[in-house]
């Protein structure tokens, strides 16, 4: 692999691309903690947790994103990030708050919905069993 001053970064959501461009540095958060990637970093794969990802672009500017859980793959000079939800932000502190309130709250609501669905399924199975017993 040749030495490169930057890398191509693509941030994908299930239905759209949030960002595609050149970056000189990327920082993110995995389940084991924060990490950074430079263009000549060894190939790398990690899960991502709800957090803030920072891209230092090739032109010297900075982009920050609030990301939900997902996956990051770096191969060669290309980094692909796939996440369930993501937002682009201007201010780091407000973006961190958005991640905490939105993504973590959504996860809690999804957990409650799955729990309610499980109770409904169990109730339906119980009623079918009662119907079968009364028919015999």
Automatic annotation (TrEMBL):
UniProt topology in membrane: Peripheral membrane protein
Which keywords, in A-to-Z order, does the entry hold? Answer: ATP synthesis, Cell membrane, CF(1), Hydrogen ion transport, Ion transport, Membrane, Transport
Which Pfam families does the UniProt record give? ATP-synt_DE_N (PF02823)
- State any GO CC term: plasma membrane
| Subunit (UniProt) | F-type ATPases have 2 components, CF(1) - the catalytic core - and CF(0) - the membrane proton channel. CF(1) has five subunits: alpha(3), beta(3), gamma(1), delta(1), epsilon(1). CF(0) has three main subunits: a, b and c.
Query: Main role?
Result: Produces ATP from ADP in the presence of a proton gradient across the membrane.
Protein name per the record: ATP synthase epsilon chain
What is the gene name? atpC
